[in-house]
Amino acid sequence: MKRWGVVFFVLLIQNQGILKPVEAEDGFVKTRGLQLVLNGIPYYANGFNAYWLMYVATDPSQRDKISSAFQEATKHGLSIARTWAFSDGGYRPLQSSPGSYNEQTFQGLDFAISEAKKHGIKLILSLVNNYENFGGRKQYVDWARSQGQSIKSEDDFYTNSVVKDFYRNHIKTVLTRTNSLTGVAYKDEPTIMAWELMNEPRCTSDPSGKTIQAWITEMASYLKSIDGNHLLEVGLEGFYGASKQQTNPKYFQVGTDFIANNQIPGIDFATVHSYPDQWLSGSSYEDQVSFLNNWVNDHIQDAQNILKKPILFAEFGRSLKESGYTTNQRDQIFTTVYSAIYSSARGGGAAVGGLFWQLLAEGMDSFQDGYGIVLSESSSTVGLISEESQRLIKIRKMYARLRNIEKWKRAREIRRAQWWSGNKVNDTGN
What Gene Ontology molecular function terms does this protein carry (predicted)? Predict the structure, then answer.
C-alpha cells in the first residue's frame, strides 16, 4: 500500500491536467482489503446525509426537492447519500404496525432510489433508529408490549425474540422490495451501496457491549443470507469498549465497541460519527477541535491496523444554532475531517470518505437543525465541500489511469508474443 501511495502522490502532482474520467458508476460497491472498490477501481468519495428523502418523496408534489438535492450534490462532487429506510408508526409511516407497510411511503423510497440512480449517487440505507424519531427501538418494543410481551426497557429491542422477529421481517421486506419505478428488487440494485443495521445503536444497560455484539452477529448473518450483493455496516458512532474507553468523550460508555463490533463476520466496513460540539458541549472550541483531530486519526489507524477494513466517516458537522458559533468554526471542523480522510486515501489507507450532516434543498427551512447546508447557497463551507470532494475524485481517476496503463501493458505483451510466434513460424518456412 505504501508503494502505491507514493505513486499516487507523484501522479497527483504531475498529471492533474490530464486526468481521464472515472468509469461508469453502475456496479456494486465491494471491498478489497482497506479499500472500497467499484468496477475494479478503488472508490473514494465524499457525500452527505439526507434522512428525509423517503419522507419528502412520499408526497409526489415535493419530489422535485430530491431531484434538486441530487443535482446540486453531483455538481459539487458528492456521490454517496445516507438516508432512512425506516419510519415506524407515527406520521407517514413506512411500517404502520409490525409487518404492515404503507405502499405510498414505499413508493417515496422507490423514487429516492431511482433518482439517485439517475444522478450516479450511491445510497446507504439505514434500517431502524436507535432514537424515538421515526419510531425506532421504542416503537418496536411498544408493539411487542401491546402483544403481551414483558418489556423492561428499550434495550429489550436487542434480546426479546418477538421484537427481533419484527426487525428481521423488516429487513426481509425492505431487501426483497421490487422498486415500482425501476422494476429492480432492492437486493439487486447496485445504486444501493450498503445497508446499515441501525442509526447509532446504543445499549446503556449493558456497557460491556456483549448485548449489542450478539445482536449485530445475529442480524448481520440474517441480512447476508438474503442479500449477498451489498455491503453491510453497523451504524456505529465509533465509541470504544473497555479496552480503549479513554479515547471516548468523558462519560460516553454506551454499550458499543468500535473494535469488536466491526470485527464481526458480515460487517464489511466501519463507520464513525463525529460531534464534538455535542459530546464536549462544556469544553472550549479549541478543545473540541483537538478532540476531533485525535478521534478521527485514532479510528483511521485502528481500521487500518486492527480491523483491516475500510472506514467511512458517516456523520460529522457543527451546528450554527448556538450563540457564538460561526461559519469559520464549522469550516475548521469540516477541514479537520476532510484532511485526515484525504491524507489516508492518497496513501492507500483505510479512510474512504466523509458524509456531512446534513444536506437540505431550497425551501426546506422546517428541516433546519443548525447543521443543514444548502449547496445552491454560496458559502465558504460549500466551497470547501466541493474542493475536498474533487480531491478524492482525482485519486479515483489516478487509480483508473493506472489500471488503463496496466491493461495497455498486458495488451502490448500479448501482441508482442503473438508477433514473435508468427515470425518464428515464418522463419521455419511454414
Answer: mannan endo-1,4-beta-mannosidase activity
Q: Is the residue at 175 inside a domain?
A: yes
Over the stretch 199-245, which tens digit does the pLDDT of each residue have? 999 999 999 999 999 999 999 999 999 999 999 999 999 999 987 98
The runs of H, that is alpha helices, within 188-262 are: 210-226, 258-262
Query: Quick one: which of 296, 284, 391, 277 has its CA closest to 336?
Result: 296
Alpha-carbon distance of 63 to 54, in angstroms, equals: 9
Whether residue 336 is contained in a domain is answered as: yes
User: Whose CA is closest to 397, among 8, 31, 10?
Assistant: 8
Residues with catalytic roles: 200, 315
pLDDT tens per residue, range 146-201: 999 999 999 999 999 999 999 999 999 999 999 999 999 999 999 999 999 999 99
Q: What is the dihedral of CA 206, 207, 209, 215, to 10 degrees?
A: 30
Domain housing 349: 35-406
**Can you read off the three cell numbers belonging to residue 366?**
422546517
- What are the backbone angles phi and psi of residue 227, rounded to the nearest 5°? -135, 105
Domain for residue 411, yes or no? no
Query: pTM for the full model?
Result: 0.90
Our count of domains for the chain comes to 1
**211 domain-assigned:** yes
Whichever domain contains 395, its CATH number is: 3.20.20.80
Q: Which helix (H) or strand (E) holds 83?
A: strand 80-84
Helix 2-14, helix 380-427: angle, nearest 10: 100
